[in-house]
Amino acid sequence: MHAYRTQTCGELRKTHVGETVRLSGWVHRKRDHGGLLFIDLRDNYGLTQLVVEPEAPFFSEIERVRQESVIRIDGQVVARVGDTINPNLPTGEVEVRIVGFELLSAAEDLPLPVFGEPDYPEDVRLKYRFLDLRRDSLHRNVILRSRVISSLRRRMIDQGFIEFQTPILTASSPEGARDFLVPSRMHPGRFYALPQAPQQFKQLLMVAGFDRYFQIAPCFRDEDARADRSPGEFYQLDFEMSFVTQEDVFAAIEPVLNGVFEEFGNGRTVTPAPFPRITYADSMLKYGSDKPDLRNPIEMQVVSDHFRGSGFKVFASILESSPQNEIRAIPAPGGGSRAFCDRMNSWAQREGLPGMGYMIFDEGEVKGPLAKNIGPERSEAVRAQLGMKAGDAAFFLAGNPKDFVSIAGKARNVIGKELGLVEENAFRFCWIIDFPMYEWNEDDKKIDFSHNPFSMPNFDHDAFLALGEKDAETILGITAFQYDIVCNGVELSSGAIRNHKPEIMLKAFEIAGYGADVVESKFGGMLNAFRFGAPPHGGSAPGVDRIVMLLADVENLREVIAFPLNQQAQDLMMQAPSEVTEKQLRELHIRIAPPITEKKG
Question: What is the maximal distance between C-alpha atoms in the chain?
């Protein structure tokens, strides 16, 4: 017989009745029923109920064993009968009567419970993550993550992609988030950077002629945490393809994502390929976001013409004051009650707005202050444009869209949830395309990249090379072959068709204020490679953590990562970051300077 087990704790079935077995695992919980002691024994694979009779010579010893101690038992499999059968447990038709017992490792008093999974402070959970990982939900999520990664890898290989590993120690980049820097002992005063993404390396692989690359890539960014963004490090399904258009990239990754979500979605419906394509401009207009949740059917519309020169002076004057100003409507199907409209107004006030104008659509009549001010003819025109029926409502926001688009998007989400319009048990994918290449930085009074600086502008190349300072308006209107993939309001990845022409790349960075010397210094390896024949290429990098978060139906990435950092980018279990010795600092030619404080005065 094996030293520790003949079966796992999730393996025994009615067909094993009468067999002598050996099991090892953790004491999940203990129950004393009239002298009989019941123990749920747990391992990675499941639970098995054990029974200990008072006559057993080891009864008092096993009775003293604490929860989460590790034990080994020998016993006979017996059938459960009647209401003792547990239909919710795969092993619920049997139990094991213990005839032999050994304590393999005693547990001390637990700092957090494993059985029952009550809410517990996150700092305790992260400090004792090895215990937290024993809890069923988190254990299940981490196993799901492993299976999702295996499925992604298999599906990419089946599509002809080759898996590569790119360097972890690389050069710092002037674009993107803040780098994690690594001092070089062999080159005093110089630093490596951990890669924010394998961006340059995967493009260089295309220049090297490998055609289809992928990897499950670790990425490192020194940025603040939030629920859908892990501080420090994260993983993505990074891929790149040569001789492709934007549509080729979409066609390659859509079946991978659709397949994974169907495989692990527990019956939830998944958008079939091809996924909808929505321009950035349309997404911001209709959904108030560049990561729309398409489970919510509400689409906003511009209704400015119905208020221009109307009796509602507030909106009319807003439209007259600037050609950029608009009136946008948020339909609320089924929201046509005064109570709901008042509730939404209160919500808007909590968000910092004075309120939201609204109309309530009744049979043959439109109600509300706005309707009274603009009159029945204009109100009916609004109803007709929005397709509203009796019992519906609509809310209105006015001004420069860039000032209110974010709150409009939030309002759309709140209205959809409040009215029960959001589709349940579904994963709804879409592509957001045609992102602006550049944006205006009001603080620095300059043009900046708005998305990926390595993207190919969607603009005539000769005309692009001729652009100058006088063409700022034209530049800010240029879109790029950049795209995001979004699922249920969560951005899974950004991607692009890459700028593979040196002269276009130098011009693109020049427009954003980077001289040729900076580009040569920071991206010289890639730029030089392009001078020796680069294929048109593009790719993307869906986030593994976010994919698993959606499939596990949790709202925090730390629930799908085995050993995450906390909100302050600390590892409470391993006590990182930590101080290092003077000897280590000397070897790296580093001296710790006191923190810089602002002078008062």
Answer: 95
Mean pLDDT by 10 residues, the chain (601 residues): 96 97 97 90 98 94 96 98 94 97 96 91 96 96 98 97 97 79 95 94 96 97 78 94 98 98 98 98 97 98 96 94 96 96 93 91 92 95 96 96 95 97 98 96 90 91 94 95 97 96 95 92 88 96 97 95 93 95 94 76 50
Torsion of Cα atoms, 220 then 222 then 228 then 230, to 10°: 60
* pTM for this prediction: 0.92
Among 237, 246, 242, smallest CA distance to 275 is for 246
User: How many Å from the N-terminal Cα to the C-terminal Cα in the chain?
Assistant: 79
Evaluate whether 481 touches 464 at the Cβ level (below 8 Å).
no
What is the distance between the alpha carbons of residues 283 and 303, in angstroms, rounded to a whole number? 17
Write out the two tokens for 96.
């094991």
Task: Identify the DSSP state of 234.
Answer: E
Structure letter (DSSP) for residue 263: H
Alpha carbons 560 and 113: distance in angstroms, whole number: 19
CA distance 96 to 38: 10
CB-facing half-sphere around the CA of 98: CA atoms within 13 A: 29
